[in-house]
Amino acid sequence: MKKKQITALLLSALLIFGCSACAGNTNESSASSETSVSSAEPTPTEEPDVVPEDGMYTAEFKTDSSMFQANEACEGMGTLTVENGEMTFHVSLRSKKILNLYLGTAEDAKQNESEWLQPTTDTVTYKDGTSEEVYGFDIPLKSVDKDFDLALIGTKGTWYDHKVSVSNPELKDENAAAIALADGTYTIEVGFEGGSGKSHVLTPCTLKVENGAATATIVWSSPNYDYMIVDGEKYLPTNTEGNSTFVIPVAALGTPLSVTADTVAMSTPHEIEYTLTFTLA
């Protein structure tokens, strides 16, 4: 009888110990599971593309190389054009030593010659008044304020990887004309039509491009013009003595620009229509 009681007690003890062990394992498993969940890193989300509203902007061009920069005459800036949500960035470089660009890596560029970006020939004017022809590029963009791969090949025939960005776009003055020339001062010819032939504008004249906006200094052969009208805007003379001088916006080279000039040479003031055409000298 006693043996049976002892045996029963031992079995009960073993059963209790086994249940406790199972409960302990369950807690540890649960804790382990919680630790695994809490320590899992969140999946990174890609930032959305940043596209400004349609318009023309000045923007900074930043690169990872001191040898690959915007021309010093442009002070690190280029022109960003946004049309129907599509972006193109034009930058004038330091010389003609970079022959092509590619949106992507150097390795991919070797296999996709049809997608190489071709250079434009830009004229830049430095602070000392000297001018130079350099290469520029029109670069399609998906987003501003983001780094992207832009490979280049130079006169040595080797492709190099670079990271660049176009950032801090600033909308240009809506009243200023934009023109596809690097910032600087240029000498340009002025084609002239209209009027009686008694007066004309002097050619060549000075064209100034600042932040992509162009203005021309117009000097008449007469001191009798008291205002000009360009695209509905009235412009007054910039001088009080000598032949009438005006600073007016220029939207494009080689395209006729209709202007109105008011002359006081007659008994009563008269507005006369003229056409000016600007071309590089």
Q: Which segments are poorly predicted (pLDDT under 50) over 5 or more consecutive residues? A: 19-39
State Rg. Answer: 35 Å
What is the number of helical segments per DSSP (H or I, 4+ residues)?
A: 2
Main pleated-sheet profile? 9 strands, antiparallel
* Bulk shape: elongated
Written as H for each helix and E for each strand, in order along the chain, the element string is HEEEEHEEEEEEEEEEEEEEE
- Amount of beta strand: 35-45%
Output mean pLDDT.
Answer: 84
Count of individual beta strands: 19
Distance separating the two termini: 126 Å
Query: What is the helix content?
Result: 10-25%
| Secondary structure category | alpha+beta
How would you describe what is shown here?
16% of the residues lie in helices and 43% in strands. By secondary structure, it is of the alpha+beta class. Strands 11, 12, 13, 14, 15, 16, 17, 18 and 19 form a nine-stranded antiparallel β-sheet that branches. A seven-stranded antiparallel β-sheet has the order 5-6-3-2-1-10-7, with no helix packed on it. It has a three-stranded antiparallel β-sheet with strand order 4-8-9. A hairpin with a 2-residue loop joins strand 15 (225-230) and strand 16 (233-235).
